[in-house]
Amino acid sequence: MAGTTAVTYYVLDSTDALARAMAEQILEVAQAAAATRGVARIAISGGSTPKRMFELLASEQQFSLFPWDKVDLFWVDERCVPPDHADSNYRMTREALLEKVPLAADRVFRIEGELEPEQAAARYESAIRNRFRLEGAELPTFDLIALGMGTDGHTASLFPHTEALHELGRIAVANHVPQQKESWRITLTSPVINQGRKVIFLIGGGDKAHVLSEVLSEKYDPETWPSQLVRPRGGQLLFLLDKAAAAELPPPDSNGWGRLEMQR
Fold this sequence. Notes:
Elements: E1 4-12, H1 15-37, E2 40-44, H2 48-57, H3 60-63, E3 71-75, E4 77-79, H4 89-96, E5 108-109, H5 117-132, E6 144-147, E7 172-176, E8 184-188, H6 190-193, E9 198-203, H7 209-215, E10 236-242, E11 257-263
Parallel strand pairs: 1-10, 2-3, 2-6, 3-5, 6-9, 9-10
Antiparallel strand pairs: 1-11, 4-8, 7-8
Helix pairs in contact: 1-2
């Protein structure tokens, strides 16, 4: 696809600062969406830094400011494991956030990883279609989609050289990932991610520095670097990074902000 994608990145000193910045972003988006449209629809990811971010959202400082009664919570992806499994993204979120905040159960839309993969994907897509009241081939527009990135360049459960990279019509799919011990995962597709009003990558660690520079380079190769598929159609794309992850990018300005254009 021809054209460019504008990328903004913000470099912070530590993983705790990353988590705090992400918590502030989610709070800001949730407040604005709730005030403008009456509902904030947010899709989240798993991981250690998101876990700290959830703990911050449940803290006294953030708790009272968050519009819990107007938030619909979804997941970007999930492993095909039961909800009480140690590897479940839902379990991590439940323990770090959901058990501590007044978010109604009917506003929490988990991926049923305990089901057969294709059934889990179909049920998740149906839940999204019903909640967003979608018709035909219409895609959901999330107010915020929070992503991570692996050392192999994957994001969500869009892994290198897997079938889900090519899906253009579905909202959620089962993806066979032979390079992972959980060989099946459920993921939102790239067209859905790119429909988001705001898409944020949360990336920390020096082991991500080189792959991040490749993802943001001029060479477009999403089969190798699936994170390159993320290019919001009309929304905002932001990378929140620690200094180690940003080591191979152009230095940010004195306030920590950097900007570049990705060729497509």
